[in-house]
């Protein structure tokens, strides 16, 4: 999840602006998540399709 569209419950400003300590803490926590969280959904779908194709190819070769 990206923080560019999140709104802070404390100050009602976008979290990406970091106006209050709660925003800054949330922004920091979201930036420290895994490297996979930065991928967009299209890249994840392509990665899954490649993985499925590789598994199918391996299954076909061993049969």
What does this structure look like?
With 63 residues, this protein is mainly alpha-helical. The protein has two domains: 1-32, no CATH class; 38-63. The chain contains two helices and no strands. 52% of the residues lie in helices and 0% in strands. The model has no long low-confidence stretch (mean pLDDT 84). It has helices at 21-31, 41-62.
Distinct helical segment count = 2
| Alpha-carbon distance between the two ends | 40 Å
Structural class: mainly alpha
Helix proportion: 40-55%
List the secondary-structure elements in sequence, H or E. HH
Overall outline: rod-shaped
The total domain count is: 2
- Percent of residues in beta strands? under 5%
Low-pLDDT residue spans: none
Transmembrane segments: 39-59
Keywords: Membrane, Transmembrane, Transmembrane helix
Topology:
Elements: H1 21-31, H2 41-62
Q: What's the gist of this structure?
A:
The chain crosses the membrane at residues 39-59. The protein is mainly α.
Overview features:
2 helices, membrane, 2 domains, transmembrane, rod-shaped, 0% strand, transmembrane helix, mainly alpha, 63 residues
């Amino acid at each position: 999840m990206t923080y560019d569209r999140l709104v802070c419950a404390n100050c009602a400003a976008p979290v990406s602006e970091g106006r209050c300590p709660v925003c800054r803490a949330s922004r920091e926590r979201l930036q420290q998540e895994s490297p996979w969280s930065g991928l967009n959904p299209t890249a994840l779908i392509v990665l899954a399709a490649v993985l499925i194709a590789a598994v199918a190819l391996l299954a076909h070769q061993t049969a």
